[in-house]
Write a structure and sequence with these properties.
Rossmann fold; 6 strands; globular; 264 residues
């Protein structure tokens, strides 16, 4: 009996030692995928993708949706990035892959600048990627850029596109149920995501997902130009409209899972 007890104690001590080694070895920490939505949208756009992911994930709702307090005119993109960083830190992920949709491309780059070493890859999905020191709208065509600038002055607490534009630009390849849900859940978006300048450094690793049937302001041609601003990237094309995570969720999940397997 004494030998059995002693053997158990030794096993326990070995387990404690292994645990300490794992905690001290930060690169072996728990990885996760952080999902960022586009303008006016919310975490709900990722509902079809999340069950297909091979890593645990966190879909973040920015202020003004998902029960989060509404944003104010005083809130800037650095405040939104700090808000997201706080959510990520609470997730207990030691390393993260950011999946950034549309206007959240600049936000993802800002988040990465606040978490050096923790963001190991960024997957941009039809994302705006401003030149460093510039804003999202600086990359848009003149008419779109001017309209957003004017609306940001008129509606400093949030801008929302008309239903007809939402259906045409964002929902062109969605079924009726998904399109209706997008329209019903669309909220005014804070102007800072569009007009604030973002300073950023090249991510160590990135993927740009080009959506070839996109009818939004971020056209397939523009997406190709924006992707060229990334140095260490893999370019993937999906025959999809702007909300590929709803119309082609398995393809988006496959891209994220491939990235997760590559950086483990």
């Amino acid at each position: 009996m004494a030998r059995i007890v002693l053997f158990g104690i030794l096993l326990g001590l070995a387990g404690m030692e292994c645990k300490v080694m794992a905690e001290d070895n930060k690169p072996m920490g728990r990885p996760g995928i952080i999902l960022l939505h586009g303008a006016g949208l919310g975490s709900h756009i990722w509902e079809k993708v999340i069950p297909m992911l091979n890593l645990p994930s966190l879909a973040i709702d920015l202020p003004g949706r998902g029960g989060e307090p509404a944003s104010t005119s005083a809130m800037r993109i650095q405040d939104l990035a700090a808000f997201a960083v706080q959510k990520i830190n609470k997730s207990a992920f030691d390393r993260v892959i950011l999946a950034a949709h549309s206007v959240s491309g600049g936000l993802a780059l800002k988040i990465a600048s606040l978490m050096p070493g923790k963001v190991i890859s960024i997957v941009f999905i039809a994302s705006g990627i401003p030149e460093s020191g510039h804003s999202y709208i600086d990359s848009l065509p003149f008419i779109s850029r001017t309209m957003i600038r004017v609306l940001s002055w008129l509606k400093p607490n949030g801008m929302k596109a008309p239903e007809s534009v939402i259906r045409t630009a964002l929902c062109n390849d969605l079924d009726q149920a998904d399109a209706d849900k997008i329209v019903a859940k669309m909220v005014p978006e804070h102007p800072s995501l569009f007009i604030d300048e973002v300073e950023w450094s090249q991510p160590a690793r990135s993927v740009y997902v080009l959506l070839s049937q996109d009818k939004s302001d971020v056209s397939p041609q523009l997406q190709g130009e924006l992707a060229s601003r990334l140095q260490n990237k893999r370019l993937v094309t999906i025959q999809s409209g702007h909300l590929a995570m709803l119309s082609h969720p398995s393809e988006i999940a496959e891209i994220l899972n491939f990235e997760a397997n590559s950086v483990r």
